[in-house]
Amino acid sequence: MHIVKTIKNLRQILHQVRRKGQKIGFVPTMGYFHEGHLSLMRQAKKECDICVVSVYVNPKQFGPKEDLGRYPRDIKRDTMMIKKENVDILFIPSDNVVYPNCYLTYIDVEKISNTLCGQYRPGHFKGVATVVAKLLNMVQPDVLYLGQKDAQQVVVLKTMAADLNFPVGIRVVPTAREKDGLAMSSRNIRLSSQERAQAPVLYKALKDAARHIKAGEGSVSKIIGRIQKTITQYSSGKIQYVACVDADTLEPLKILKGNILIALAVFFGKTRLIDNVIIPIKKSNKVQN
Amino acid sequence: MHIVKTIKNLRQILHQVRRKGQKIGFVPTMGYFHEGHLSLMRQAKKECDICVVSVYVNPKQFGPKEDLGRYPRDIKRDTMMIKKENVDILFIPSDNVVYPNCYLTYIDVEKISNTLCGQYRPGHFKGVATVVAKLLNMVQPDVLYLGQKDAQQVVVLKTMAADLNFPVGIRVVPTAREKDGLAMSSRNIRLSSQERAQAPVLYKALKDAARHIKAGEGSVSKIIGRIQKTITQYSSGKIQYVACVDADTLEPLKILKGNILIALAVFFGKTRLIDNVIIPIKKSNKVQN
Questions:
Q1: Which chain B residues have a beta carbon less than 8 Å from that of A137?
Q2: Does residue B192 share a domain with residue B155?
Q3: Which residue among A266, B1, B138, B257 has its CA within the 20 to 30 Å range from the CA of B33?
Q4: Over 70: is that where the pLDDT of A232 sits?
């Protein structure tokens, strides 16, 4: 495995790869790997010749009051973990490689960056879109691998890549979960044992909602209410939002039809967890009064 | 010469070019060619194997009160002109190819987009940066050719390309001028014969300023005052701005030192003309009181 810290070095190695006509899969991450990251890498190894993984905790996607400083980091552990996955290139740029002095350029994906999580994290998706555009230009991959856990990030980056005509395919990999259903996240390590025991309620509530929609429930507000009730009843989690939106446009749904994305963000103590499900419904359900 | 209207077709042709290891030079334009455009194409032909020219009047870089509708267009004339230059690919996308429905993504190069012309054309350089980033991803050239006449555009696009790590070199080609010194521009055709006769005063005033700086003049305000006086004295031109800034950062200069960019925008009737000179000064001139 090549461990690379500069763009020049990265490009030199990838130039050789490209000359051989090899297909490049790219997994951008903020490190502190869990099974979710590894599943992206495995998918990339399966579908491409070369898997490039970047580890960079991007300061531009953290708000001033957010957990940039506390975000878990352990590059030695990460390096050990992904050697086993036969990752070909690990790219670990420093802050001054990614954002040199006098950095001025930002990418804004309007509307869809300002809903759901974006409503509570102003500037977050601008930071995400900007760093991923930069990484796409550094790596020039054939396929970009993203995790479904970050549902809004997937929509923002798909839109950004399509709008700016990046010559890259995007593959979305299902959310990796613990045995009890909790979505894997680097932030889970910060949960107390009590919080950790309660956190699976998020996915339980989402699955319960999916079941009700599939069974014919047609009221968006009833579905959202059910989820909120389940979370507050069975945990100490403080709900930031529960939303029911179109999975492609992130527009709030009035009728439960199409690809329905139910997404939520809930605080357990200081730790903010997100999760989501997508439910494809061909015919709209009737609202039961 | 290939005349191409879709991104798919463009990519198919360029894929073959790239497989042969040929170097691609790219000249993005809004058409209605003059000698300035042709000099960019000649430079590209000299330095690259393949010259791609795009013609697209980008609506996103025109303000609501600007001259999008009146901007001169003549694709037949353009096509004839560049066949003689041995251009390899002419890319003429339509609006719905460049900005399909639900387009959401914009690139902002902060600070340097909001000074000089940007002060009077809010959103202009956001439109320019966005469309050029898109075209760079469509064409994936080795070298991008830009004209020095649009001095601020050069700085904005150089910064955008560097900040977003586009794998492209940038070559800036000197401003092409009429025999009497007027900077060539597609908009010159809209000048009345009287305005056309007066318009060379812009370059005369800039050259005069350059002479005085080289001769030791150290006062920025005196230099700007001289230019303003020359223009108002010898023409009916209405000055929008005359500015003296650092050629790389566009920051206003207090001391005349480094690469000095003197840039101006002047209205002749409804037609807005721009021009500039760059004066490299190693030692700062002393202000003569």
A1: 164-167
A2: no
A3: B138
A4: yes
User: Contact B108/A103, CB-based, under 8 Å?
Assistant: no
Angstroms from A48 CA to nearest CA on chain B = 19
Domain boundary among A173, A195, A211: A173
Neighbours of B4 (CB within 10 A): 20
Q: Is A124 a residue of the active site?
A: no
pLDDT in tens, B27-57: 999 999 999 999 999 999 999 999 999 999 9
Q: Whole domain around residue A262: which residue ranges?
A: 186-281
**Residues in chain B whose Cβ is within 8 Å of chain A:** 7, 11, 102-112, 129-130, 133-134, 137-138, 140, 159-160, 163-167, 249
Task: Examine residue B270 and state whether it is found in any structural domain, yes or no.
Answer: yes
Instruction: Mark out chain A residues that contact chain B at CB-CB < 8 A.
Output: 7, 11, 102-112, 129-130, 133-134, 137-138, 140, 159-160, 163-167, 249
Inter-chain residue contact B167 with A108, CB threshold 8 Å: no
Instruction: State what percent of residues in chain B have pLDDT above 70.
Output: 98
Q: Same domain, yes or no, for A82 and A164?
A: yes
Question: What pLDDT does residue A288 have?
Answer: 53
A287 assigned to some structural domain: no
Does residue A181 fall inside a structural domain? no
Contacts of B159 in chain A (CB under 8 A): 104-105
- Listed in sequence order, the DSSP H helices in chain B are 7-19, 35-47, 75-83, 95-98, 116-120, 124-139, 151-163, 193-198, 201-214, 220-234
Residue B264 shares a structural domain with residue B166:
no
Question: Rounded CA gap, B16 and B22, in Å?
Answer: 9
Condensed to tens digits (0 to 9), the pLDDT of residues B168-204 reads: 999 999 999 999 999 999 999 999 999 999 999 999 9
Q: How far is A162 from chain B (nearest CA, A)?
A: 9
ipTM score for this prediction: 0.96
Q: What is the mean pLDDT of residues A209-222?
A: 95
Quote helix, strand, coil % in chain A, to nearest 5.
Answer: 40, 25, 35
Q: Which of A150, A173, A196 is the last residue of a domain?
A: A173
CA geometry: angle at B13 spanning B7 and B18, to 5°?
Answer: 110
How many domains, in total, are found in chain A?
Answer: 2
- Answer yes or no: do B133 and B203 share one domain: no
Which string of DSSP letters, residue by residue, matches A139-153? H--SEEEEETTSHHH
- Separation CA A210–CA A224 (nearest Å): 11
Kindly determine whether residue A133 and residue B164, on different chains, have CB atoms separated by under 8 Å.
yes
